[in-house]
Amino acid sequence: MDNKKLADLLFPDVKLTVEQIEKKYPKRKLKPGAEVTRFAPSPTGFMHLGGFFQVLIDYSIAKHSDGVFFLRIEDTDQKREVSGASAVIMDILTGYGFTPDEYELKGGVTVGEYGPYYQTERKEIYRAYAKKLVSEGKAFPCFCKKTDGLADVELKRQKNFAQGLLEEKDPCRNLSMEQIEQNIKEGKKFAIRIKSNGDGKRKIKFNDGSRGEIEILQNSKDAILLKNDSLPTYHFAHAIDDTLMGTTVVVRGEEWLPSYPLHAEIFEALGFKQPKYIHTPLIYKFNEKGNRRKLSKRKDPEMDMRYFEKEGYDKTAVVEYLLNLINSNFEIWRKNNPNADFREFPFDGFKITTVTPIFDFNKLNDISKDVISKLSAEQCYEYLLNWAKNYSIENVEYLEKQREYVTKVLNIDREKPKPRKDIYKWSMFFELFDYMFGAPKSFEIDESERKNYEKVLRNYKNYLVLTTKEDWFNNVKKMAGELGYATDNADFKKNPNKYLGNVAKVCEYIRIAITGRKNSPDLYEIMTLLGEKEVLRRICAIV
User: Fold this and answer.
1) What's the pLDDT tens digit per position in 13-50?
2) Are 170 and 153 in contact (CB under 8 A)?
3) Residue 191: helix, strand or coil by DSSP?
4) Is the domain of 135 the same as that of 263?
5) C-alpha radius of gyration, the chain, whole number
6) Which residue has the higher pLDDT, 79 or 194?
7) Residue 204 belongs to what H/E stretch?
C-alpha cells in the first residue's frame, strides 16, 4: 500500500508538517539538572485530592531543581467537560501558592511560550503527527461502527480478555486502499489507530522514578490515537505535548502503570525520547468496618479540594498533611524545624512513598491545630473573616462590627509559650466558642453532683472578683475551703474521702455554669472578656 497516498487521502487539508511544528518548540534553555514538570488535569469535574497530591510532587521537583512547572488542560473529552472547571483548578493552585510558571486562562492571558496550553487548541498539531505516522505505515484508519457506545471491535476485545485470550489486532489494519477509498467516499468517519508490533507475550522493562525497575508485558493493542472527531486520546496527546513542551518528569497515578507499554510504543513510533515517570499510589481510607477502600468522588466529600476551603481548613495544614502522606521524612523534619516554612523541606520527588497512603481526618485535624496555634489573634481574625465572606455570610456583619471583641476571644490562651490547640478549621469557631456570644443552653453536669454544683454557685456570687487572676483564684480557693473542698492537692490525694473534692472541682463547677462545658480555655480570661455583670447573670439564671 502506498502509505504516503493514504496519508494524503485521510488528511487532505493538513498542510502543517512536523518539521514546521518542532521549529516552534525549541529545546528549553535550562541549567543542567533542572526538571520540567506539568499538571495536566481534565476539566471534567472538580479539582480532586489525588490530583493535588501530584501537584505537590510536580511543583516541588521543579522548584527544587530550578526548573519549570506548567499547567496544561487536557480538554479533549468534550462530552464530559464541566463549564468553569479549568478556572476552579487554577484558583486552587494559586490559592495554595502553587501558581504555575506557564499556563493559559480560557479566553484570557497566556503565560509561557510552549502553548497553547489547552489541548483542544492543539488539534492541528495532533493531526499533523497522525498524518506522519500513517505516511510511515505506523498507523491506519479504523471505520468500526459504534454499538451501545462501544466499537464492535472493542466489545469483541472485552469478551476475549474475559476469556483470558490474547488481544486481537484491529481488523481495519488489513483494509485495502480500495476499501478505504470507498469508505471515505461514503462519508464514513474514521479513527486513527497505531499499528502495534507487540505480540502480547514479550516483556519490556522501564525505571519508575519512585518504584525502581518494573517489568511489564509489551503493548499488543492497536490503540486509538485520534478519535473520529479528530481529537486525540490521552495516550497520543501525552506523547506529543510532553515532548514538544519539554517535559522531563511525568507524575501520575499508579492506575496509569498498565498504559506504560502503549505509551512506550507511541513514543517509539514518533521517534521521541520518553520522559521520566513517577507513578504515585492511590489514596485510601478506612471504612466503618475498618477495611481499606479507595477514596471515592461519589462517597467522600474530601476528594474535592474545595471541601477544605468550605470547611475552613488552613491551607498550610492541608499541604503539610499531604506532605506527610507523600514522604514520611516530613514529620521528622517538622519536629526538628517547628517554625520553618514547609517549602524549606528538602523534598525529593524521586523518593516518595510507594506504600498506600491512608487519609485520616484525625491526623489532618492535629496538624491543622498545630498550624493555627502558631498564628496571632489578628491573623486568626483575618482568616476567619475571609472564610466567612465566602461560606458564612450571615456572620460577616457581626465579625466586622465586633472585630475587637472577636479578636480577644481568639486570643484566649493563644499568644503564649504553649498556646491552646483547639481550633482546626474556621467553620467550627462559633460552635466552639458559642458561650462567648450567648449564655449556654445545656450544661455538662452530672445529676449526682447537682446539689454540690448549685451550692458552689450560690456561694460564688459573694466571692466573684475579677481584678487580677491571682485575686480571683485566691477567692475561689478560700470559698472552696469553707465549703469542705481540699485546698492542698497533696493532702487531697492522701485523704480523698475527707473532702467533697478539690479546688479543681470547684473551678469545674464555675466553668460549667459559664460555658456549659467541663473543658474550655482559660476560665479567668473567659470571665474577664464576658465581664462581671454577665458572669453573675449566668450564675443567677441557675441558682
Assistant:
1) 999 999 999 999 999 999 999 999 999 999 887 889 99
2) yes
3) strand
4) yes
5) 33
6) 194
7) strand 203-208
Q: Is the torsion defined by CA of 404, 409, 413, 414 positive or negative?
A: negative
Q: Which domain holds residue 9?
A: 3-15+122-280
Q: Domain ends where: 234, 251, 280?
A: 280
C-alpha cell at 426: 474556621
What was the pLDDT predicted at 134?
98
Is 410 in contact with 384 (CB distance < 8 Å)? yes
* Beta strands 36-39; 68-71: pairing state: parallel
Residues 139 and 166 grouped into a single domain: yes
Q: Beta strands of 65-195 (E only): which ranges?
A: 68-71, 103-104, 110-111, 139-142, 146-147, 150-151, 191-194
287-310 burial, b if ≥16 CB within 10 A, otherwise e?
eeeeeeeebeeeebebbbbeebbe
**Separation CA 501–CA 486 (nearest Å):** 6
Whole-angstrom Cα distance, residue 382 to residue 403? 10
Structural domain includes residue 83: no
Nearest-CA neighbor of 222 among 157, 129, 277, 268?
157
Model confidence pLDDT, tens digit, residues 81-100: 888 889 999 999 999 999 99
Dihedral pair phi/psi, residue 222, rounded to 5°: -80, 75
**Structure confidence by residue, pLDDT tens digits, 439-484:** 999 999 999 999 999 999 999 999 999 999 999 999 999 999 999 9
Q: How many helices (H) and strands (E) does the chain have?
A: 23, 15
Length of the chain: 543
Check whether residue 135 and residue 214 sit in a common domain. yes
CA-to-CA distance for 368 and 314, rounded, in angstroms? 6
Orientation of helix 523-530 relative to helix 532-540, angle to 10°: 100
User: Residue 84 CB: number of other CB atoms within 10 A?
Assistant: 11
Cell numbers found for residue 283: 489514596
Distance, in Å, from the CA atom of 344 to the CA atom of 243, rounded to the nearest integer, reads 31
What is the total count of domains within the chain?
A: 4
Nearest to 243 by CA among 339, 321, 126: 126
CA distance 242 to 277: 12
pLDDT score for 373: 96
Angle at 463 between CA 457 and CA 469, to 5 degrees: 110
227 and 272 share one domain: yes
